[in-house]
Specification:
- InterPro entries: DUF7402.
- This is Carbohydrate-binding protein.
- Pfam families: DUF7402 (PF24135).
- It comes from Candidatus Ornithospirochaeta stercoravium.
- This protein has 257 residues and is mainly β.
- The protein has no helices and 17 strands.
- The strands form three sheets. Strands 9, 11, 12, 13, 14, 15, 16 and 17 form an eight-stranded antiparallel β-sheet that branches. Strands 3-8-5-6-10 form a five-stranded antiparallel β-sheet, with no helix packed on it.
- The chain is globular and about 55 Å long.
- It starts with a strand and ends with a strand.
Length: 257
């Protein structure tokens, strides 16, 4: 495995290891820098690419992971200290078996549009004005603050008032799930909410959920099913005059197969 920091097409910092490795950088990231991680094989990893974002246990399909360091508007969905400062610690190791137990399989604070290798990965057919604070990745970053909008920690998936909006969550492998928890944005009276939404699973099944005006979790349980992905669509807005419903967080609980 190896971690590299790429700047102007050249590798400026790097570290390699078999089962675990770390990289300490005494330098500020420059606009255009890219964090690159190359795994040895597909499997489960516990990693930390930023001290503020912390550790996560994720699945890699074996392809290289490349994350352009966010600057300017692309940084707005993060805490001010994320990827900033003149000291950085990046660390990866192969996950222990017990880290792959029952947990929120949707959590990935390192997700981004460019992600094609570290799962879960969220994507959507619409994101409000293309702004990072309304990107699909915000729905799986682990932050559940709901009573604001437009900046961290209230980053959300914003649908730009589009009734055809759809969010897809790709697990990258088969998982067994039996519980979904939804946090809708609750910056009332600016926000509206959805009365109903439909989860469509990769096994062909669907789950229609009734939602309510609430600042907090809304939990839905079902018989255990094996899936590789799910989508949330057919979102029916409430009759509230506000045109702005949004999703703060999607949690999906289960086990790796």
């Amino acid at each position: 495995m190896k971690i590299e920091i790429i700047r102007d097409g050249a590798i400026v910092y790097s570290a390699e290891g078999q089962n675990d490795l770390y990289l300490v950088i005494k330098d500020e990231y420059k606009e255009g820098d890219c964090i690159s991680f190359t795994p040895d094989e597909a499997g489960y990893l516990t990693l930390q690419f930023d001290a503020v974002l912390g550790r996560s246990t994720l699945y890699t399909n074996g392809k290289p992971f490349k994350l352009p360091v966010p600057f300017n508007q692309k940084h707005d969905c993060y805490h001010d200290a994320v990827y900033r400062g003149n000291k950085h610690f990046l660390w990866v190791r192969k996950a222990y078996n017990w880290e792959c137990g029952y947990r929120n399989l949707a959590l990935n604070p390192y997700d981004a549009h460019e992600n094609e290798s570290l799962f879960p990965h969220a994507k959507a057919n619409i994101e409000t004005r293309g702004e990072s604070v309304f990107a699909a990745r915000n729905s799986i970053d682990g932050i559940v603050a709901s009573n604001g909008h437009g900046e961290w920690p209230w980053s959300s998936w914003g649908i730009n008032r589009d009734p055809e909006a759809e969010l897809t969550l790709d697990f990258g492998r088969n998982v067994e799930i039996d519980r979904i928890i939804v946090y809708t944005r609750a910056d009332f009276p600016h926000d509206a909410w959805w009365d109903e939404g439909t989860f469509s699973f990769s096994d062909g099944s669907e789950l229609v959920v009734k939602l309510e005006k609430k600042d907090g979790p809304q939990e839905f349980t079902f018989e255990k099913k094996t899936v590789s992905s799910l989508s949330l669509d057919r979102l029916i807005k409430s009759s509230d005059p506000s045109p702005f419903p949004a999703l703060i967080q999607l949690e999906v609980y289960g086990n790796d197969c």
